[in-house]
Amino acid sequence: MKYRTILLFGAPGCGKGTQGKILGSIPHFYHCACGDVFRNLTIDSKIGQVFIKHSSRGELVPDRTTIDLWRQSIESNTRIGRFHPDQDTLVLDGIPRTVHQAEMLKTTLEVVGIFYLRTTDQNNLIKRLQRRALKENRLDDANLEIIRTRLLTYEKETKPVLQYYGRKLVHHIDADQSPVKVLSDILRHTLKA
Ligand code: ADP
Q1: The domain 3-9+18-190 is classified under which CATH number: 3.40.50.300, 3.40.50.1000, 3.50.50.60, 3.90.1300.10?
Q2: Residue 54 beta carbon below 6 angstroms from any ligand 1 atom
Q3: How confident is the model at residue 140 (pLDDT cuts 50, 70, 90)?
Q4: What is the pLDDT of residue 185?
Q5: I want to staple 94 with a disulfide (CB 3.0 to 4.6 A). Which of 27, 34, 86, 133 is the partner?
Q6: This prediction's pTM
């Protein structure tokens, strides 16, 4: 059985996590942020070290490592009864992040909608990330050069994922609006899906 899935898509700092957390608090929605799965690793584990090495440079973790870890996480959350694949819609945030990852998840996900959170102003994104660096103690948000690398990585490696799934599934959301307006736009489409 494939997981019924909606994807939150967009550049680092566009608000995917904020929206994902809200959606995940609604019954029958389960939010999974790939970055959180990585951040929950212990720092001295082998994968934890791989994560630190790549994320601290603004790069993506290799696809095989990412998908294996993500599968383990989703399966253990199913076992402990947090995620119910037969009833819940999976809200994915930060995965798939390359076309190769999307390919690897082809037989696992039934993607029913993609919410593409777009901002017109890159400086706005940078400001949000820098604010988050202090609030959430995130190393990869602290340094302007790393932020720029992440934005470039997004353009080069992640944006093509949109074409992979095709235009029909993609809903464009204006992410410069207030969080509640963004949520309302997402919900309007979700109710139809
Ligand atoms: P943001 O969306 O703000 O960049 P995330 O928390 O989603 O933040 O990701 C933080 C870092 O974790 C990324 O820069 C990357 O190194 C790693 N990461 C998260 N998700 C993936 C993924 N699907 N594939 C590879 N690396 C990932």
Answers
A1: 3.40.50.300
A2: yes
A3: confident
A4: 97
A5: 34
A6: 0.94
